[in-house]
Structure formats: C-alpha cells, structure tokens
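User: Okay, second chain of the day. Same drill as before: sequence in, structure tokens out.
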Amino acid sequence: MRTYTDPQGTVWTVYLVAPGGGTSPQLLPPEFRAGWLCYECEEGKRRLAPIPADWESCPENRLDAYRASAVSVQRRIVATSDGRNAPARPVSEELRDVEHFFTRKLPSSLSLALDKVAEHLAQPDAPAETRPALPHLRLASQAASAGDFATARDRYRDAAAYFPRALLGG
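Assistant: Same drill. Structure tokens below.
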C-alpha cells in the first residue's frame, strides 16, 4: 500500500486488489482477472488494470499519471447533516436485506446487498475488527451473481463471524 498527495493536494491511498480465495476468474470482467490497483481518497475511488509492474516503487508523479488512466468507481453515499459522507442506510438494514434476498433467491439483488454491506465495512469509521469480513463478502457477492447460493451463504457466514453484535443492530 502507498499513500501520496497529487498536485491538487488530494491525498490518495493506493493498494493492490487481488482475486483469491477460490474466486473463479470467469466471475470477473476480463481486465480485472489478474487483479487491479485501487486508488482511494475522500472524494472517490478509482480502479486501474492491468497493474503497472513498478507501482510499488515508481515516483509519485508516475503513480499519479497511472491514476489519471484509472476508471472512476461510483460510491453509494449520502451527505450527513454535519457535511460528512456516509453510506445511505444503516448497515443493520443492509444485513436484513441480505437475509431477505437469500430467502427469496434473488441473485442480482443479493449481490448488490452484499456489496452495500461491504461498502459500510470499508468506511474509515467502520469497526476495525470487521475488515477481515470484506474478502468473504466479495466472494459471497460474486457467488450470488453467478446464482451459486450455497457458496454465497457459506462465504456470508464466514464474513458474519467478524460482525460485532452492535453491527447487527442489537
């Protein structure tokens, strides 16, 4: 992971995202099957594939030039009353949606709900002990997208092991 400040003064964190944990490459878009770089700042997120070989050691101006060619990723957030950005709904509501979509066996809705839970847990103010759940949630989402509910349920249970009671709304 690297952190740098671009010429406009924006602080970016750059890290490698590598598919793993038995993820089938066919579940990912072709350009992301070997992994990607994620550029993240307060204002947004970008993804770059293929991964430049020198990203860990290149000068910051080159790292920023790579960012310029990365694809912007939309975040589903809303502004709070104090001007900060936050996920649109409480994570406990998103978790209830996950259970609902598992019951109804709605693959695209389940995948989206799992992604929303992951977005909550990826926020800087999310409990640190929930971070290990993120790869499990991503795998569950991919399995749900492919219609593999058994694998999605197993990966979701793996993720839920990291959820503190307060996260579940009680």
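DSSP finds five helices and seven strands in the chain.

User: Thanks, on to the next one.
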